[in-house]
Amino acid sequence: MLQIEMTNEFEEALTDEHLALVEKCLQAAAEREEISGEVSLTFVGNERIHELNRDFRGVDRPTDVLSFAMNEQGEDELDIYVDEEDLADFPNMLGDIVISIPKTREQAGDYGHSFERELGFLAVHGFLHLIGYDHMTEADEKEMFSRQEEILQSIGLTR
């Protein structure tokens, strides 16, 4: 099972139904991918996600979702070797997902579906990035987006 910590840093409060939906989406994704661990999810405005996008990705504009994987080694990081038995005592920290609420609303309108559908999509998209999926090539994009659709449809969150 996935442990999820959610924080809302945006001035607009999300409803309990929205938070429950996000949790349902992430649990379905974890179950589908057979992964357990911990995820931190933060809801922000466009200004904050713009800062994060600029500072961590070098892209000077707001975006919809960012993922910061804890189990992924960066370019200049040292290799760390740990005995597998020692890891059994610690939770699997998957990483952080940051979602822009204004971008979620904007894209829901652009794509002609509900805010809830877009919110679920972005949560699952961010989660899949945490566990190693990407969409840099056409084949990778096809695989990732196919998984997203399977997960969303499995909980009845269709377009």
List the topology elements.
Blueprint: E1 2-8, H1 16-33, E2 37-44, H2 46-57, E3 65-69, H3 84-87, E4 93-100, H4 101-111, H5 115-130, H6 138-154
Parallel strand pairs: 1-2, 2-4
Antiparallel strand pairs: 3-4
Helix pairs in contact: 1-5, 1-6, 4-5, 5-6
List its salient traits.
single chain; 159 residues; four-stranded mixed β-sheet; metalloendopeptidase activity; ribosome biogenesis
Give your account of this protein's structure.
With 159 residues, the protein is α/β, with parallel strands linked by helices. It has a single domain, classed as Collagenase (Catalytic Domain), CATH 3.40.390.30. Helix content is 49%, strand content 18%. It contains 6 helices and 4 strands; from the N terminus they run E-H-E-H-E-H-E-H-H-H. Strands 1-2-4-3 form a 4-stranded mixed beta sheet. It is globular, with a radius of gyration of 16 Å. It starts with a strand and ends in a 5-residue tail after the last helix. About 3% of the residues have low confidence. GO terms for molecular function: metalloendopeptidase activity; RNA endonuclease activity; zinc ion binding. Belongs to the endoribonuclease YbeY family.
Question: What is the level-2 CATH architecture name?
Answer: 3-Layer(aba) Sandwich
Give me the secondary-structure category: alpha/beta
Unreliable sequence segments: 76-80
| C-alpha Rg (nearest Å) | 16 Å
